[in-house]
Write a structure and sequence with these properties.
This protein is mainly α. The protein has a domain at about 20-85. Helix content is about 50%, strand content about 5%.
C-alpha cells in the first residue's frame, strides 16, 4: 500500500493548493445534510448507521451509469428487516 503524506490547507490564506483541497469532504457532508433536511426530516441516533451507509453508497456511486441496476441487486441480496424489528426498542439483557 502506498503511503501518502498528510497535507493541510490554511483557509485564512487559500482554499486549495494543487490537488490539496477540502471539496470532496464538503460535498459529502452537503449531500448528507440535504438527505437529512430534505428527505428524512429527522434522524434517530438508533438508525444513524443505516442513514450513513445509504449516503456513503449514494456518494460512492454518484457517477455510476448502472446505479439503478446495482441498487436493485443490493436490495435483492440484502436480508429482510421486518418493521417490528426496525421499530423495536433496545432490549435489556435478561436477568437470569
Amino acid at each position: 500500500m502506498q503511503s501518502q503524506k498528510h497535507r493541510t490547507i490554511n483557509h485564512t490564506r487559500q482554499y486549495a493548493h494543487g490537488d490539496v483541497h477540502t471539496n470532496t469532504v464538503e460535498s459529502a457532508f452537503s449531500l448528507l445534510k440535504r438527505g437529512i433536511v430534505g428527505t428524512w426530516h429527522k434522524v434517530d441516533a438508533k438508525h444513524l448507521p443505516a442513514y450513513l451507509d445509504e449516503m456513503c453508497f449514494r456518494f460512492n456511486n454518484r457517477k455510476n451509469p448502472y446505479l439503478f441496476r446495482d441498487t436493485i441487486i443490493k436490495l435483492i441480496a440484502s436480508p429482510n428487516l421486518e418493521y417490528k424489528d426496525l421499530t423495536a426498542s433496545e432490549q435489556e439483557p435478561d436477568a437470569a
